[in-house]
Amino acid sequence: MDQAVTLTVADGVGHIQLNRPEAANTIDMDLARALGEAAVAAGDDEAVRAVLLSGAGKRFCGGGDIASFAESDDPGADLLALADAADGAVLALEALDKPVVTAVHGAVAGGGLGIMLAGDVVVAAEGTKFVFAYPAIGLTPDCGTSTALPLTMGRQRALAFALRDQPLSAQEAREQGLVAEVVADPLARARKLAAAWARGSSAAYGQTRRLLRAGADRPRTQSGRDEADTLGRRAGTPEAQALFAKFLGR
Which controlled-vocabulary keywords does the entry list (predicted)? Predict the structure, then answer.
C-alpha cells in the first residue's frame, strides 16, 4: 500500500507530497495523520532547511474525503475526529521553524485550502481552480481555513469567496492575494524557491515566517518585543556573524 504522504530530502529541501492521486488527494484519516507526521519529521531533521509542499496526480487536494464518512453510522463523530487530525497536521506545518513553499495544480478545495496556506509562498499552475466547497455539501470550514482566508485575502474577499461558493481561477486567486505566483510549472518554480532558501539562512527565514504569521494575533507592543528578542538572539549566532563580515567586506 502506498504511503498517503511522502517525505523526501535532497539538497536541504524536504519535499512533503500528498500521495492519494487516485482520490484527488482528498483528506482521510490516513492522510491527515501522515501529513502531521511528515511535518514533524521535516521539522526535526537538521538536513531540512526548507520545505516544499505539493500533491501527486492531477490535483493538489480535493478537500475532505466525503466517501470516508458519508455512510458512517455516526458521521458527526467521524468527521469531528477527521477534522481534529487534519487541523493538527496544518498546525504542525504552520509551526515549522523553516520556510515553506506550496506548489498547487488542478484543483484546491475545502480543507485543501488550509493545507495550501500553511505554506509561506503559494505557486499555482495556470488553470488551477480554487473552490471553497463546504456549503455545497452543507458543511463549514476546517483546517484553519476560517482564519487563513481572511488573513490572506482580506475579510471582504474571503467572505465573498466563501458565501458565493464560486470557483476562483488561478489568475483571480493571484489578483485577490490567495496565491503569490501563477506559472506553467509550479513544482519546478517551487523547487527553485525552496533550494534558494535552503542555501540561505534557514533559521532567519524560519523566524521571519513565525513573526509574520503571529503578527495579526498579537498586540503591537508584543510584536515589537518579540521582534527585538528574536533579532537579539539571531545576532549572536555564528551564522549571522559570518554574514555580517561578508556584508561589511563587500
Answer: Isomerase
Which pTM value belongs to this model? 0.91
d(CA 5, CA 130): 22
C-alpha cell at 49: 532547511
Q: Check if the beta carbon of residue 191 is closer than 8 Å to that of residue 13.
A: yes
Residue 118 grid coordinates: 500553511
For the chain, counts of helices (H) and of strands (E): 11, 9
pLDDT digit string (tens) for 90-103? 999 999 999 999 99
Q: Where are the domains of the chain?
A: 5-198, 201-248
Q: What is the pLDDT of residues 165-186, one digit of tens each?
A: 899 999 999 999 999 999 999 9
Assigned C-alpha cell, 136: 455545497
Rounded CA-CA distance 209/97 in Å is: 8
SS3 (DSSP) at 161: helix
pLDDT tops 70 at residue 21: yes
Contact 61, 28 (CB under 8 A): no
Q: Distance between CA atoms of 9 and 74, rounded to whole angstroms?
A: 39
Helix, strand, coil tally for the chain in percent (to 5): 55, 15, 30
What's the rounded Cα separation, in Å, for the pair 149 and 77?
Answer: 26
Q: Where are the beta strands (DSSP E) in 164-220?
A: 168-169, 181-183
Q: Which architecture does CATH list for 5-198?
A: Alpha-Beta Complex (3.90)
In b/e form, how buried is each residue of 93-125, taking b as 16+ CB within 10 angstroms?
bbebebbbbbbbbbbbbbbbbbbbbbbbbbbbb
